What we know:
globular; mainly alpha
Amino acid sequence: MKQSLLIIATILLMVGGLKAQSTADARKLLYYERYDGAAHLLQSLLQANPSNTEAWWLLTQVYLHRNKADVIHDSLLLMPAAVSQQPLALCAYGQVLLAQHKKDSAGLCFNKALTATKEKDAPVLLAAAIAYEDIDSSNAAYAVGLLNKAIKREKHDADIYVALGNAYRRM
C-alpha cells in the first residue's frame, strides 16, 4: 500500500513538473541570453500555433541577437499571410529590415503597425522603440517618444522602463 502511494506521488510530481511552455518562459530565456533554448522553445510554440505574433517577435529578437538577420528574414517570409499583417509581426519584419540597413522599408512597416493600432498598443510601441534603439541609434529620440506613449498606456510594465533607459543611454 505504501509503495503504491509512493509511486503515485512520484508520478504526480513528475507530471506536475511538466508544464506548458509559453512566451513568458521564452522572454525569461531571452533575458538571460540563453538564445538557443529560447529559439528552440519559440520554434516549438510556433509549430503548435503559427498565429502567435508575440512568439514571432521574440524569435526575431533571438535571431537578431545572434546576428542572423538573413535566417529570420527567410522565416518571416514563411509566416502565414493573416499573421504577417498583424502590428507586432510588422514590427518584427521592420526590425529585420533595419538590421539589413533598409531604413525606408522598415519605416513603412513601423508606420503601418503604429497607424493600425493608432499608437495606443503598448506592446507595439515597445517593439518599434526597441527596434529603433537597438539597431538605429540615430533614432533614439524617436524611440524615447514612443516609449513615453507606451508608459501612458502601461504604467507598470518594467520592460518599457528598461527600454527607456537603454534609449536614453544611446542618445
